[in-house]
Amino acid sequence: MCGSLCDAVLVLVCGLPAAGKTTLVKQLVASGNTSSRLYERLSLDDLYEQRAIDDGISNPAEFNPDIWKASQHEMVLRVRNRLTENASAARGESRIQLVLLVDDNFSYRSQRKRYFHLATELHCGFGVLYMNVAVANCRARNAGRAKTGDAGAQIADEVFERMVAVFEAPNGRQNPWEVNTNEVKEVGDGSGIGDVMNALIERADHELKRRHLLQMEVQRGSAQQLCDRLSTQQNVLHRVDLRLRQWISAQLQDGATLPAGMSKSQFAGRLNRRRKCYLASIKHSYGNTLDRLHDGSEEEMLISLVLQFQHQN
């Protein structure tokens, strides 16, 4: 993990029912761990089944849209909590990298995008492991699950066909959140999955570094914009102040403008207090001042501000 930013990598394992997702994920959890990497599994099917049992559903295998939505929501919370927990625990050079495998169909791109944004928010690596198994093979396996003692995982034929119809395969050329996608055609004995995961995690680290650099560039750009804004503000205020001082000086030299019963020093004090209050009001409403600057020249804006001061009572 030397030079790696990824204390954790979130991997979505997607594909049609009976594509072999759960088999592959369980293989990784059982035999893929090393001294520097830990695989963990979160399964939507497990959450769905437990919630159905808790709600007293007699047949958990029968699809219930309300339970599915609740399970989806709970999965997001569990993923967030686990990644946050891992980030808090990650310390030192000998830290173990968590690879969190989320086992679900992920039929819709919007679902995968949601987890990409979560990984970005939590500064984690992100990847998609797409079980791209032929539909005919998945259909046959689903139909044969009862014979292999896995009837609980079997779904109705009409549900399977509906999932085939709506499934949106990952496409990194069109969707930036799916750039880091690896395809697996068949699980087999799992002998090559280690290399597949290594490549996926390496690219996840590369993408995380790229996002980190982009974020730093945005922050630097924002800081520069703030500096430029403050510089423009100070320049405008300074030039308005000079114009006002010149106008006040002219008023004091013109005896005709001196109010009756008021000395020149008193008049100067009143005008300068007005000047300071006026400058403070410009500073506090600087956004409106900038809008004026964008609508016309700086000289026009200065004339407008000075005239506004002159017409105040």
From TrEMBL:
Alphabetized InterPro entries for the sequence? P-loop_NTPase (IPR027417), Ser-tRNA(Sec)_kinase (IPR052648)
Q: Name the keywords, alphabetized.
A: Signal
Q: A single GO molecular function, which one?
A: tRNA binding
Q: Which domain of life is it from?
A: Eukaryota
Question: In the record, which residues are listed under signal peptide?
Answer: 1-20
Do you know which Pfam families this protein is assigned to? AAA_33 (PF13671)
SUPFAM superfamilies the record matches: P-loop containing nucleoside triphosphate hydrolases
Q: Does the keyword Signal apply?
A: yes
Q: Which PANTHER family match?
A: L-SERYL-TRNA(SEC) KINASE
Q: What is this protein called?
A: L-seryl-tRNA(Sec) kinase
